[in-house]
Amino acid sequence: MARIDEERSRYLRDAANRLLGEKRLRGALRLLEEVKGALQEEATAKVIGDPRGAERREREVADLRVRIFSDLPPAEREEADALFSRHRADPARVLREGEKLRKERRLLAARRLLQSLVLDPSAPAGPREEARAAVAGLEREILADLDPAERRAVEEALACPVFARLEVLPSMEFLFIGDAALLARIPARSRFLLDLAYVAQTDLAGRVPNPGGDRVTVFFKELWDFGGGVGGGSRIDIGRADPRGKQAILVGSGLFFHELGHCVFVPDPRFPGWMEGIANFAAAFTATFLKQETSEGGSWKGDLEAFRRDYLEREEAYWRTAPYGPSAGWFLHWIASRGMRPGRGPDWVRYGRVFRAWEALSPRPATV
Description:
With 368 residues, the protein is α/β, with parallel strands linked by helices. The protein folds into three domains: 2-70; 74-144; 169-360. It contains 15 helices and seven strands. The protein has helices at 2-21, 25-44, 53-70, 74-87, 91-103, 107-118, 125-144, 148-158, 180-183, 188-205, 254-264, 272-289, 298-312, 325-338, 348-360; strands at residues 166-170, 174-179, 216-220, 229-232, 235-238, 340-341, 345-346. The protein has a five-stranded mixed sheet. It has a two-stranded antiparallel sheet with strand order 6-7. The longest helix has 20 residues, at 2-21.
């Protein structure tokens, strides 16, 4: 599954960055080459939609190879250069000196000497091709020369058991990805509530985040050290997933309503505060619609209070509204002040007309 492959690539890149920080360049290169291959496969399958991603990975790998092959002691560098200058007129001698250095396990010096022959335009074609083949062999030896700790770190990263434990649990509108033990702790009723949240939010917004019919993915990431969630498009990521926990995982709740709001409601113009504000608005709407909260309490009340305190009382420009509560209160303010039905709560149909009219505008105005 592309989402799992992408997460494995992210994890391997993190492991490669740790090795780079420890100056273990060969181990880092081995992991980046694995990532590069995965991205090339994904690009071929047109899964990720990042046409320049493979190019960036190619450059990263190429740059790291240059660093590795250039990382030889100054004395060996000078020796290799002196040998080439002394025997440049005798390519066969250069080849013999290169082989001698290889047998002495001074691989980087041997490569530098023979690479000089490869790049010498005055050298005959035969010796140059022989040197080119020898350089390729030396590079393979150099890159395979990992110390035991470096090799162990690479092998552990490549064989990370987390990915073997991942399973997929479907609902009507979502695919939940995570450790099998973790997915077993999501109650069926909670999955159903998140399905209802999808129906409610897309009906209010007049759009769906997945027009191609693919279900929204919710990935519980054990290896992602982020204490919350990130949503957008047709994907939601939840960090610090704990497969060893005992408590039920309630996906029909505020965090998931908020991240789903990032997928469904796309504020445009994209003022900084509105990005999180409209997701908070979506969570307040959903909790009210599903009767988990009322319009007199919960997040609804808190968002409106934040809007009053941080916006109205400060006479702030609307496009500078702070994220989360204050900007969510900006959206809730209009229905709280103009769209309440006595004894029946908010008239969400009014907001539905607003969102649909806004979605139909083409081109969109630069401001509201």
